């Protein structure tokens, strides 16, 4: 039996990296007593697929992983046992059976929708920068990693970048919404839809960092970013 | 009389800033099994402060035990804080935020008691940084009734005179019991409304608690200590000597079977059960082997039960059976084979194996298919040196261990040695290389392609050991011997690693220092020294300037042989092992004579059992059995 767990990586655990999430989820599933199928070979690992990694600092409202079980269990039992073992600010939203023979989770992801909560910028300035970004054909950015520096063209990955009308009015999941949104007029909420291309995608933070070429300088690290949704290929 | 428990830093502020520091999850808490009590419903708030980075502190067993013990107390809350890495310290300073605990994000200064865990001398500058960042006056004399009581425990507390001016009270020995006594004296004092000086006096009456400000140190013209006496304060004086607290039995000691599980992997990312405390192998360089006596074992059934409980409740896939020498445990083979049948399918691991075939046999049992590597610690290369340090293994033992390892399928062997031990000659140094060569030859003759890593550290003499009188070699001399060894460690399949001599020297200064080093520590802290044990970050010039400016003679502390009648800065602190025994052991070392382990043989007369009213407590051999 393969199940897909849709869960929330909440606000308070946003600073966990992807490998931390994998470790925490694997340990939670072990504590929950799920009969997880182990991989073959020298050092067996639980057979789990974590779809699309979230970077450190980004929370997610509808994150997913899939796990192969050695024997079937009722979905409500799975939900109950895992809920009891998830650390605080991890929440199960739904558990679904996965029909056999379909593509791997990571390959069926087509896009991610992010909420951005920026501080110290004006909505109009951000809006102009987004428009300029979208009007460009190509937006190259150097990404520096510990071992390599590479150039990425951000533009083709961004399907949509919008400034939202005003704070407090959009329908945001409670756990992902900013704690004190409302009166602050230097605070802007935005939304960004980013494409996944066979596992490859970009981070919204990179897009924000690239906006200096359109006259908008901001410290992208101070932006609160949440992934609202993961869009899967429809069959 | 609760203090204000205002959250100084809101989550909204924090989450906008933490993206700028490395590994921000070090500073956000929320761990599995973390305990957050309502501050309104407790009388005493205790902050456990670990002066090293989160990943080191979060899995530290002693802290886990204390966190559990203190939080088990009614109306007492224990929270945790760790040394912020430099980027986080910079952030705290820039935003003018205090160092806070992970559970309630309350500033350190709002706590009643702040307790530091001292595992290593090179964390001292971090202790000062945490006090200052936590809004607590650095020096004990500058604190008043509005400030937390600052205490410290851990192995280093028995010789932490360099911290004497900064710590209000040290807890010596096993912390499980003494911490309760400290909290209860604190509670009574607070109700009494008496001045802080009264609290310190009351604390000094608890067995195992050392209040440094109640003692005066007198010095000889040659700068050595002439005597350390309790001050006379209107007829009151603290005890002449403070004896280490010792749990009589580990079997009945509290143990966290719902351990705190960090959300980012700590350095020891596995379940842990302490199978015994204390070690009586009697290695003469080893401080832990002296200051944790006697051996006290848990029963195998208790260990199995604990291990299974922790595995089930944690989701770890490995359980480590820890102690100072786990292969010595009375029922080790049975214990390991029973535990390997655990229903969680978890691996079993043993740290600190002995160098013999028995231990390698154990390692083989544990192997579980993955023959990655085996670590052995002969400590010295020649038989003469091993006799001097009382490491009672012969060359035959070592080669037999290596042979068993090769035939069990291991090809990667890591060997630990020290150089600069008392009485060491160039021949002894070269013998390390020869031994490694011999092991490689053995492996090749068995048709393997062995890879041998030789890891060598510089010997640092430690307080409360038979070698406390010995000098630490100067950096130039250690480097000469490192090079000498390097010249005989060439060839394929041999890898040579050695420690930074500058750290060896720094550790040597502080591990046998006195309270006059306080000004050097404070200066180093003010100059920005932190995380001194992290080599990447070590700045030789900064420490040289510190010692120069504060008038500290490094030779005096680190490189001088001390006379047999010298009074040491820690002589008023008793580990239970008598100084006369340590001296006898030192003389035996010079004669290259061995002393047996008292675990199975007769008493060797160290003094711990009669003086502290305890005894060796082995599993299955208790009274009435």
Describe the protein in words.
The complex is a heterodimer of chains A (about 240) and B (about 625). Chain A contains five helices and ten strands, in the order E-H-E-E-H-E-H-E-H-E-E-E-E-H-E. Chain A has about 240 residues and is of the alpha+beta class. Chain A folds into two domains: about 100 residues, Pseudouridine synthase I, catalytic domain, N-terminal subdomain (Alpha-Beta Plaits, 2-Layer Sandwich), CATH 3.30.70.580; about 120 residues. In chain A, strands 1, 2, 3, 4, 5, 8, 9 and 10 form an eight-stranded mixed sheet that branches. In chain A, strands 6-7 form a two-stranded antiparallel sheet. About 5% of the residues of chain A have low confidence. In chain B, strand 16, helix 14 and strand 17 form a beta-alpha-beta unit. Chain B is of the alpha/beta class and about 625 residues long. The longest helix of chain B has 20 residues. Among the domains of chain B are: about 230 residues, Rossmann fold; about 110 residues, Transcription Regulator spoIIAA. The chains are: A alpha+beta (about 240), B alpha/beta (about 625). The interface between A and B is medium-sized, with 31 and 30 residues.
Report the strand count of chain B.
19
Largest sheet of chain A: 8 strands, mixed
Query: Can you give the helix content of chain B as a percent range?
Result: 25-40%
Mean pLDDT of chain B: 93
Low-confidence stretches of chain B: 1-7
Q: Cα distance, first to last residue of chain A?
A: 21 Å
| Helical/strand content category of chain A | alpha+beta
Principal-axes shape call of chain A: elongated
In DSSP terms, counting alpha (H) and pi (I) runs of 4 or more, how many helices of chain A? 5
Report the top-level CATH class of the domain at 11-243 in chain B: Alpha Beta
Taking all residues together, what is the mean pLDDT of chain A? 90
Radius of gyration of chain A: 19 Å
Percent helix among the residues of chain A?
Answer: 10-25%
SSE arrangement of chain A, N to C: EHEEHEHEHEEEEHE
Structural class of chain B: alpha/beta
Biggest interface, chains and residues, is: A-B, 31 and 30 residues
């Amino acid at each position: 039996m393969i199940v897909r767990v849709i869960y929330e990586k909440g606000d308070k655990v946003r600073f966990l990296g992807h490998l931390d999430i994998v470790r925490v989820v694997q340990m939670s599933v072990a504590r929950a007593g799920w009969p997880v199928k182990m991989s073959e070979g020298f050092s067996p690992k639980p057979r789990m697929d974590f779809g699309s990694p979230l970077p450190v600092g980004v929370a997610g409202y509808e994150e997913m992983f899939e796990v192969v079980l050695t024997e079937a269990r009722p979905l409500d039992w799975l939900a109950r046992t895992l809920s009891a073992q998830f650390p605080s600010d991890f929440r199960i939203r739904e558990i679904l059976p996965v029909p056999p023979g379909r593509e791997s989770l990571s390959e069926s992801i087509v896009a991610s929708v992010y909420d951005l909560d920026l501080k110290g910028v004006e909505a109009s300035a951000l809006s102009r920068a987004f428009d300029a970004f979208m009007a460009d054909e190509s937006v190259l950015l150097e990404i520096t990693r510990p071992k390599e520096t590479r150039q990425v063209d951000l533009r083709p990955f961004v399907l949509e970048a919008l400034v939202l009308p005003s704070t407090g009015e959009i329908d945001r999941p409670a756990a992902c919404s900013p704690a004190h949104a409302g009166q602050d007029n230097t605070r802007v909420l935005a939304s960004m839809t980013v494409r996944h291309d066979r596992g490859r995608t970009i981070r919204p933070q990179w897009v924000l960092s690239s906006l200096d070429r359109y006259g908008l300088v901001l410290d992208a690290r101070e932006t609160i970013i949440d992934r609202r949704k993961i869009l899967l290929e429809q069959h | 009389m609760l203090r204000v428990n205002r959250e100084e830093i809101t989550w909204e502020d924090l989450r906008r800033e933490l993206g700028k520091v490395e590994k921000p999850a070090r500073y956000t808490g929320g761990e599995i099994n973390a305990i957050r009590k309502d501050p309104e419903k407790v009388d005493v708030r205790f902050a456990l402060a670990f002066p090293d980075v989160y990943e080191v502190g979060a899995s530290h067993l002693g802290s886990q035990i204390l966190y559990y013990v203190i939080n088990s107390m009614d109306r007492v809350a224990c929270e945790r804080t760790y040394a912020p890495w430099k980027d986080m310290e910079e952030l705290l300073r820039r935003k003018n935020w205090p160092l806070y605990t992970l559970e309630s994000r309350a500033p350190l200064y709002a706590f009643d008691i702040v307790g530091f865990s001292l595992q290593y001398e090179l964390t001292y500058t971090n202790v000062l940084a945490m006090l200052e960042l936590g809004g607590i006056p650095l020096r004990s004399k500058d604190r008043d009734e509005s400030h937390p009581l600052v205490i410290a425990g851990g192995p280093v507390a028995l010789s932490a005179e360099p911290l004497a001016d900064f710590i209000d009270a040290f807890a010596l020995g096993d912390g499980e019991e003494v911490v309760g006594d400290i909290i209860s004296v604190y509670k009574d004092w607070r109700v009494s409304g008496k001045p802080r000086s009264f609290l310190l006096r009351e604390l000094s009456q608890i067995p195992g608690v050392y209040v440094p400000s109640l003692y005066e140190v007198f010095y000889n013209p040659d700068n050595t200590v002439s005597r350390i006496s309790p001050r006379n304060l209107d007829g009151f004086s603290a005890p002449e000597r403070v004896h280490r607290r010792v749990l009589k039995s580990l079997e009945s000691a509290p143990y966290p079977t719902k351990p705190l599980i960090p959300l980012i992997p700590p350095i020891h990312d596995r379940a842990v059960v302490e199978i015994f405390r204390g070690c009586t192998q009697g290695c003469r360089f080893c401080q832990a082997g002296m200051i944790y006596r006697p051996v006290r074992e848990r029963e195998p059934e208790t260990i199995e039960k604990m291990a299974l409980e922790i595995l089930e409740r944690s989701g770890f896939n490995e359980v480590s059976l820890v102690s100072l020498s786990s292969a010595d445990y009375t029922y080790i083979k049975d214990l390991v084979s029973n535990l390997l049948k655990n229903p969680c399918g978890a691996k079993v691991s043993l740290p600190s194996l002995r160098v013999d075939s028995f231990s390698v046999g154990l390692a083989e049992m544990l192997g579980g298919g993955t023959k990655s590597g085996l670590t052995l610690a002969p400590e010295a290369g020649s038989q003469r040196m091993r006799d001097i340090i009382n490491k009672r293994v012969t060359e035959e033992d070592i080669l037999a261990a290596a042979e068993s390892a090769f035939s069990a399928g291991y090809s990667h062997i890591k060997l630990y040695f020290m150089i600069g031990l008392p009485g060491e000659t160039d021949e002894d140094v070269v013998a390390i290389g020869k031994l490694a060569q011999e092991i490689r030859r053995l492996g090749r003759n068995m048709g393997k392609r062995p890879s041998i890593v030789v890891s060598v550290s510089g010997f640092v003499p430690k307080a409360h050991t038979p070698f406390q009188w010995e000098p630490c070699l100067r950096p130039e001399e250690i480097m000469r011997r490192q090079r000498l060894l390097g010249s005989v460690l060439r060839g394929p399949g041999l890898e040579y690693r050695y420690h930074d001599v500058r750290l060896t020297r720094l550790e040597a200064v502080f591990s046998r220092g006195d309270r006059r080093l306080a000004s050097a520590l404070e200066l180093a802290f003010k100059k920005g020294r932190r995380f001194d044990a992290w080599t990447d970050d070590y700045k030789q010039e900064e420490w040289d300037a510190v010692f120069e400016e504060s008038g500290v003679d490094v030779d005096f502390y680190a490189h001088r042989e001390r006379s047999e009648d010298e009074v040491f800065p820690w002589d008023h602190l008793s580990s239970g092992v008598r100084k006369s025994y340590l001296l006898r052991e030192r003389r035996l070392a010079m004669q290259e004579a061995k002393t047996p382990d008292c675990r199975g043989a007769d008493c060797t007369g160290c003094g711990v059992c009669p003086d502290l009213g305890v005894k060796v407590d082995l599993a299955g051999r208790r009274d009435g059995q």
